[in-house]
Known about the structure:
By secondary structure, this protein is mainly alpha-helical. The chain has one domain. The chain is built from five helices and two strands; from the N terminus they run αβααβαα. The chain has helices spanning 2-12, 27-30, 37-44, 60-72, 82-86; strands at residues 20-23, 51-54. The chain has a two-stranded parallel sheet with strand order 1-2. It is globular, with a radius of gyration of 15 Å. The chain starts with a helix and ends with a helix.
Amino acid sequence: MADAARAALTASGIEVPDAIVVATMNPEEFLGRGELRVPHRHHLGFAYVPAIRVETATSSGAAAIFAGLPRSLPGPPAPFSSSAASG
């Protein structure tokens, strides 16, 4: 996973990311530990890059993309519209 992350960063021209988003699904149950942000940051060589953990069960990957998306787009993120949800 670290090799793939480094390759993606190199291909995109990014030397150091703005943040790291770690998506998990119940790591306490499956791995016996819940804190995965720190080991991932250190393993990638980004010890001082802010990191967050996103966990939304089976949609954790999608939530991680959503969490990182505003950082990758120019300008501020668009606000959510409550009219779409109620219509």
